């Protein structure tokens, strides 16, 4: 198989994998058939370039170009998606990494330190509710003992899902010992670059963010015969809480979203007994995030008292603010006079940065700012500009050691 150096050809090859015929969105959840096909595609692309892929016990992958004792430069992203997600979030970084390697080879570049391309699993947390789970495990931010007991919506344990996918967690996880720097290219999930009228930017920071589970409990009853004043309806408590979250986020210029709920018994003619809702919250600082979530919780508890319901709030996944290495960002920004901008979205880059690895992110313009949706998009010309920018960044970082 000849190397597929054409970005557009690689993108075309990936387009059908995990795509819904009805919505046009992607269902590339971890440890499923679609994800296995993506892992095989990545391994084939690396093999065509003479790179040997190492796959760890949960499906994280990495392939290295070049040898030496110098700390290596790792680039890449993830291939999984949110439910009914877009094509670019994650895969753009992986395809661009492969294309950037081709650009470097066409230039006659020889790495002065190892240059790796990696793929982390379950970045979105769409199946087991833990964002960046693959990178959290390899950095030790989460242990396998903690993760193995996670369940998906169908009650499947993470340990069983990994085993059913033909992987063996006992085989161990990827080692980051040889990684000296990590660079992740990603489609921008906002409109900052659009407003600046530039195709490429670098990241300055990631806002702190997290997911909280709200369990609203009440009393199941008949929708027709139960007087309104006699009800203990947790749906009312939830509805007010969703409005409170919107209000608190708007007041502070932050983000708060209830995007997933579960209702029991989920009958049209029944007052619910339990409503479980998941809050995604993001703010400009750790203190602001804690204050916003606290305010939402207090309003929810006050409403529960009035409704005769009860509420339990538990944090499922919380990531603090991440400030990327400013000297590294300034050094790389000078290569193309690229702006350095913040992001409100979480990334594997944030996990590696928190683990002490100097990290940078390259963003590619998203013309509408829409993400986590089938409407997510980036123009081919901008994607190619991103490939060139990534190649320039990698050449700067993986060139002849000083």
Overview of this protein structure:
Keywords: Hydrolase. Belongs to the peptidase M20 family. InterPro entries: Amidase_Cbmase (IPR010158), Bact_exopeptidase_dim_dom (IPR036264), Peptidase_M20 (IPR002933). It comes from Nocardioides pinisoli. The protein has about 400 residues and is α/β, with parallel strands linked by helices. The protein is built from twelve helices and 15 strands. It has two domains: about 5-205 and about 320-400, 3-Layer(aba) Sandwich (Aminopeptidase); about 210-320, Alpha-Beta Plaits (2-Layer Sandwich). It has helices spanning about 5-15, 35-50, 90-105, 135-140, 145, 160-165, 190-195, 235-250, 285-305, 325-335, 350-355, 380-400; strands at about 55, 60-65, 70-80, 115-120, 180-185, 200-205, 210-215, 220, 255-265, 270, 275-280, 310-320, 320-325, 340-345, 360-365. Strand 1 (about 55) and strand 2 (about 60-65) form a beta hairpin. Helix 3 (about 90-105) crosses helix 12 and helix 8 packs antiparallel against helix 9. The longest helix is centred in the last third of the chain and has 22 residues, at about 285-305. The protein is globular, with a radius of gyration of 22 Å.
Give short descriptive properties of this protein.
about 400 residues, alpha/beta, Aminopeptidase, Alpha-Beta Plaits, 2 domains, nine-stranded mixed sheet, four-stranded antiparallel sheet, 12 helices, Bact_exopeptidase_dim_dom
């Amino acid at each position: 198989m000849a190397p597929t150096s054409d970005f557009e050809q690689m993108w075309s090859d990936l387009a059908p994998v995990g795509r819904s015929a009805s919505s046009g969105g992607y269902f590339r959840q971890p440890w499923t058939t679609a994800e296995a096909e993506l892992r095989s595609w990545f391994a084939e692309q690396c093999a065509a370039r003479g790179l040997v892929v190492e796959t760890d016990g949960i499906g994280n992958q990495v392939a290295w170009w070049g040898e030496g004792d110098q700390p290596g430069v790792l680039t890449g992203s993830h291939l999984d998606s949110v439910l009914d997600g877009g094509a670019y979030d994650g895969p753009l970084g992986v395809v661009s990494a492969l294309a950037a390697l081709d650009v470097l080879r066409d230039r006659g570049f020889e790495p002065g330190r190892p240059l790796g391309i990696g793929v982390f699993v379950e970045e979105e947390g769409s199946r087991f509710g833990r964002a960046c789970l693959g990178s959290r495990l390899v950095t030790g931010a989460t242990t396998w003992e903690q993760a193995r007991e996670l369940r998906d919506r169908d009650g499947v344990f993470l340990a069983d899902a990994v085993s059913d996918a033909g992987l063996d967690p006992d085989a161990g996880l990827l080692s980051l010992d040889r990684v000296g720097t990590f660079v992740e290219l990603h489609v921008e999930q906002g409109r900052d670059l659009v407003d600046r009228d530039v195709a490429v930017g670098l990241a300055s920071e990631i806002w702190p963010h997290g997911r909280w589970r709200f369990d609203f409990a009440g009393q199941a009853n008949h929708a027709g015969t139960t007087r309104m004043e006699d009800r203990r309806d947790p749906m009312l408590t939830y509805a007010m809480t969703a409005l409170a979250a919107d209000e608190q986020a708007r007041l502070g210029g932050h983000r708060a979203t209830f995007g997933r709920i579960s209702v029991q018994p989920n009958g049209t003619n029944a007052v619910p007994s339990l409503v479980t809702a998941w809050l995604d919250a993001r703010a400009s600082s750790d203190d602001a995030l804690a204050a916003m979530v606290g305010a939402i919780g207090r309003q929810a508890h006050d409403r529960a008292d009035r409704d005769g319901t009860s509420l339990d709030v538990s944090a499922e996944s919380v990531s603090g603010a991440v400030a990327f290495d400013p000297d590294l960002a300034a050094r790389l920004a000078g290569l193309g006079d690229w702006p350095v901008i913040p992001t409100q979205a979480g990334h594997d880059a944030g996990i590696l940065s928190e683990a002490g690895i100097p990290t940078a992110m390259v963003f590619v313009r998203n013309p509408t700012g829409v993400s986590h949706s089938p409407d997510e998009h980036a123009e081919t010309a901008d994607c190619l500009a991103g490939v060139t920018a990534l190649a320039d960044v990698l050449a700067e970082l993986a060139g002849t050691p000083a």
